[in-house]
Backbone:
């Protein structure tokens, strides 16, 4: 049968089918990034799932199979090359290394490492990709029944992205967050101590050894055998910390007062409070992220079930409600958030009490948020954290200092 003998409808159907097959064959071309979601499972081993991020819509499609983690995974970070993933398992005090498969973004467990203290809470990779910093709740000899100070495990990252033997830094009574700057060697730890001692602790990094030295305004001492840390004021019950991509501003949310504090980074690494803060958030702010261009800041509000959007004043760092949409509703118990590093416009939220992931798209002109098609997306178990890595064939957003 020749093409001329076919009806127009038949030809159209064939062309449509060919187009669909072509898109399927080149599906990876439409995957701009991969999203990794950790989930907890009531005291048993947790899980991690991988999703492909659609280039046009930002919708998620699950890839690979569910992989087991340690007990109660609470945080995750990717390596700078986007080929490895480090998962923080709170209840068994481990860091789990996963390799990311470039072909489809699926993950495979490689190694598991013990932290230098117990109950790790958060992690960050330094600007050179040479060290992984992990905050933990209790130093050796302390526990929930005999409370005491926590610390930071400092893991060297080897050439093959495995982790070396960690060193230790003792800090205050309840470190819950850590960030590392992109354009200078500063690391900031969020210490959720009882008010009025809640603070951000600032450190300068030795880029050869990973060792941290207290920046001006941060003091680590020992009183009656226990480590005591003082730093930059961070409200009553600080819950999340973020640093802008140019390493000029640090932000901290306070879940007790529904506020956000802004800090200006000094040349020494010290922090100075923004003069017009604090800034209002929604009810019980629990997570925070900044877009790759450093123009917009987003806060997840656990009790309100919303994500608040702010535009960052590029001169002062002050956040103001986005003119596009000051906040948008998600599902129950939003906490951890991430923005895909390739396009820099798709934001994903872990709804910890809903078993889902909300997808939001930010307007690059004003930071406003709209819901991504087909959102929310079903998660395995109760999601605790989300992190994204660019697909290897797509560029990563880069901010120049």
Residues:
């Amino acid at each position: 049968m020749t093409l001329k003998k076919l009806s127009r409808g038949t030809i159209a159907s064939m062309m449509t089918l060919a187009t669909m097959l072509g898109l399927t064959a080149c599906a990876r071309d439409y995957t701009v990034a991969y999203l990794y979601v950790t989930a907890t499972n009531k005291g048993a081993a947790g899980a991690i799932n991988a999703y492909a991020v659609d280039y046009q819509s930002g919708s998620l499609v699950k890839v690979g199979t569910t992989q087991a983690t340690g007990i109660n995974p609470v945080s995750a970070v990717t390596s700078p090359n986007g080929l490895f993933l480090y998962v923080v398992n709170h209840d068994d005090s481990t860091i789990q290394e996963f390799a990311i498969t470039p072909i489809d973004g699926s993950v495979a467990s490689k190694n598991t490492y013990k932290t230098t203290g117990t109950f790790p809470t958060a992690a960050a990779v330094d600007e050179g990709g040479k060290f992984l910093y992990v905050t933990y709740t209790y130093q050796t000899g302390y526990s929930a029944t005999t409370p005491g100070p926590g610390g930071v495990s400092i893991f060297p990252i080897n050439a093959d992205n495995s982790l070396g033997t960690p060193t230790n830094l003792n800090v205050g009574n309840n470190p819950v967050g850590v960030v590392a700057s992109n354009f200078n060697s500063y690391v900031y730890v969020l210490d959720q101590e009882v008010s009025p001692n809640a603070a951000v602790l600032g450190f300068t990094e030795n880029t050869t050894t990973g060792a941290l030295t207290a920046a001006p305004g941060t003091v680590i001492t020992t009183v009656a055998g226990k480590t005591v840390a003082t730093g930059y004021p961070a409200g009553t019950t600080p819950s999340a910390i973020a640093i802008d991509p140019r390493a000029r501003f640090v932000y901290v949310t306070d879940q007790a007062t529904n506020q956000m504090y802004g800090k200006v980074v000094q040349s020494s690494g010290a922090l100075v409070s923004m003069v017009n803060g604090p800034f209002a958030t929604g009810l019980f702010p629990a997570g925070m992220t900044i877009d790759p261009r450093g123009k917009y800041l987003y806060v997840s509000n656990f009790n309100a079930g919303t994500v608040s959007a702010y535009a960052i004043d590029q001169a002062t760092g002050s956040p103001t409600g986005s003119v596009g949409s000051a906040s948008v509703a998600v599902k129950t118990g939003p906490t951890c958030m991430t923005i895909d590093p390739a396009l820099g416009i798709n934001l994903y939220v872990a709804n910890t009490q809903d078993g889902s992931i909300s997808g939001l798209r930010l307007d690059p002109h004003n930071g406003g948020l709209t819901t991504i098609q087909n959102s929310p997306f079903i998660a395995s178990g109760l999601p605790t954290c989300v992190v994204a890595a660019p697909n290897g064939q797509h560029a990563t957003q880069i901010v120049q200092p």
In short: Residues 1-28 have pLDDT under 50 and may be disordered.
